[in-house]
Amino acid sequence: MNEREFADEAIKICAFIMAESARTAPKSKGIDDLEIIYIGREKIEEIARKMEEFAEEDKDFLRDANSIRKARGILVIGVRGDKPIGVNCGACGFKSCSEFERAKREERKFTGPNCAFKLIDLGIALGSAVKVSAILGVDTRIMYRAALAIKELGIMKKDVLFAIPIASEGKNPFFDRQR
């Protein structure tokens, strides 16, 4: 087989290994509130079209929609941030974790407020996943705009999420993008 003939399967295998690296990344107090999903090529056009709907607010949605069309799959990592870890650090903007828990949560692009430690856990998981992608030699980029479309489509409903489109091309299609 020619490498291009099994590239979709190779990307899926890479995504699965990336997901396991994200899952096993350190979590605050060992509490895992992550959700990790893989989206295959068949849904990418739907996500790109949803991204284009947001372009009136931010023209970079068009640029990123065109970028993800070059992906063979998308790994999505999200977190539920409404459960504080109980250290009363104040990073969420509240005096105590119990005050944070009583706060009214609002849906904007993401849902908040969120426990800062849960957001840190998400960042570490994202970093762990893309570290693996670099080791495996696949093209990735962590994307906020694609995640908003995924959330809007109801594919993942976590409070905060990010998408990692994955490709295997001669040049990473997610960088040096046209503005």
From TrEMBL:
Entry annotated with the keyword Iron-sulfur: yes
Domain of life: Archaea
UniProt-listed InterPro entries: 4Fe-4S_dom, DUF2148
Keywords carried by this UniProt record: 4Fe-4S, Iron, Iron-sulfur, Metal-binding
One function term, GO molecular function aspect: 4 iron, 4 sulfur cluster binding
Domain 4Fe-4S stretches: 69-132
Designated name of the protein: 4Fe-4S domain-containing protein
Natural source organism: Archaeoglobus fulgidus
